[in-house]
Amino acid sequence: MTRVIKLNRGLDINLAGKAALEKKSAAAGKVYALCPDNFQGVKPKVVVKEGDKVKAGDALFVNKDCPEVKFASPVSGTVVSVERGDRRKLLSVQVEADATQEYADFGVKSVASMDAEAVKKALLEGGLFGYINQLPYAVSTTPDAEPKAIFVSAFRDMPLAGDFAFELKGQEQDFQTGLDALSKIAKVYVGVNAELGIKEDGNIEVVKFVGKCPAGNVGVQVNNIDPVNKGEVVWTVDPTAVIFFGRMFNTGKVNLTRTVALAGSEVKAPCYYDMLVGQDCSALIAAEVNDGNNRIIMGNPLTGTPVAGATFLGAHTSEITVIPEGDDADELAGWIMPRLKQFSVSRSYLSWIFGNKEYTLDARVKGGERHMIMSGEYDSVLPMDIYGEYLIKAIIAGDIDKQEQLGIYEVSPEDFALAEFVDSSKLELQKIVRQGLDILRKENA
Q: What is the DSSP string of 319-330?
């Protein structure tokens, strides 16, 4: 019988523009870009140069600290640009795709006959191992890490997030193969909110979560199933990456196609598209988004990254969302008005009378940064056994001993996304947590 965990804390934000459960075709782009910033904690070293020919699955760059961790090209073609920024930081490796795609052949493999080392070796050779993250530090992991468990959250509940159950249709076999492969390394916990037809065995356990957002956050699931203590490591894997793994084992080819939701109040007809990692989304956005001053976000509105100019699909991106920027809004009498169309956690606006209506929210912060008040705001939306406000204070103060005592090894920045949304002090909590994790990782190296 599937274990059920009920979470009492959280917050659902019902935004207008959720993607309809239908799929449309998106025109393939000419140039694809793989961006190292999509893989947290990786120091990239380019292994190709402009003019090189590559196949889909060939490495474009590797992790300098662990060169066996490669990152595969999503397409075959010619390397046209190695883009660098300040201090020669690698921003992207861009490939102009061939008209007819060629794939590096890694051979079809029977997962049932493989052991942990064989699975790791196959993922490393295929340039997919870097899609596995770890706690502590919420970074891309390395093969020498020994996880006590592997966690996959097979549902997404952030505002406007893509529906994984819809994405999974027709790919159930690849998903199961990916789970079977990971289970050779350590016990796999799969967090769900609905029946997905996953086959359980002694090393794969399905856990159903019932509750409000952020129940779908893998960090929340880790905290409620098997918390991370100092000296321990768990791996976390995006469910789409599990499909990538399964495809490679079943076909011998690296296919980085994923189903992406184009959503948000400024999208003309929100729905889903099959796209390749690194695909240029500019033409699609230009055609499907309303004119106006909009914010384009690679990801959901709470944890995604705002983009401008060329918008290449991120390696871990399951949705592209578009909301109004809001800097041209002109409200009569400001906060004095009842604001029937605005959302408020504290019921400061009368909109709460109308129940769970859809809201069209813009990107304004509506207030400046101010002193931190110990109000319990974070605790109301953070279903984890940690003291969120005290942890944030310890990170700001740089008190590493206190951070460890307060559970920093268990968290990732996205776990504080809702706390950042409700925070009356207007602090950038996700940025603060990321900086704290990076400093702690450097200190413990």
A: EEEEEE--TT--
SS3 58: coil
CA distance 412 to 78: 36
Residue pair 39/22 in contact (Cβ under 8 Å)? The answer is: no
Q: Reading across the β-sheet that carries 294-298, which strands appear in turn?
A: 23-24, 271-276, 257-263, 319-324, 294-298, 305-307
What is residue 365's predicted lDDT score, i.e. its pLDDT?
Answer: 86
- Over residues 215-221, mean pLDDT: 97
| Residue 123 near residue 129 (C-beta atoms within 8 A) | yes
Collapsing DSSP to helix, strand or coil, 167 comes out as: helix
String of DSSP letters for 175-240: HHHHHHHHTTTS-EEEEESS---PPPBTTEEEEEEESSTTTT-HHHHHHHHS---TT--EEEE-HH
- DSSP sequence for 62-84: EETTEEEEEEE-SS-EEEEEEEE
> Where do we find the tokens 């999503």?
74
Q: Cis ω on the peptide bond leading into residue 147 (within 30° of 0)? A: no
Burial zone of 202 (CB within 10 Å; 0-12 exposed, 13-18 middle, 19+ buried): exposed
The 10s digit of each residue's pLDDT in 168-209 is 999 999 999 999 999 999 999 999 999 999 999 889 999 999
Mean per-residue pLDDT over the chain, rounded: 94
Q: What letter does residue 299 receive in the DSSP assignment?
A: B
How much is the pLDDT for 335? Answer: 63
Considering only CA atoms, which of 46, 118, 111 is closest in space to residue 84?
46
Distance CA 282, CA 141 (A): 31
Percent of the chain with pLDDT over 90: 85
Who's near 321: CB < 8 A, 6+ residues apart?
17, 160, 263, 264, 296, 297, 299, 300, 301, 304
Q: Which of 222, 142, 166 minimizes the C-alpha distance to 190?
A: 222
Residues forming beta bridges with residue 142, ordered by sequence position: none
Distance CA 16, CA 13 (A): 10
Q: Output the pLDDT for position 333.
A: 67
Q: State the CB neighbour count (10 A cutoff) for residue 355.
A: 7
In this structure, which amino acid lies at residue 123? L
pLDDT in tens, 333-380: 666 666 777 787 877 776 667 777 898 999 988 888 888 888 889 999
**Which phi and psi angles does 134 have, rounded to 5°?**
-140, 155
DSSP 135: E
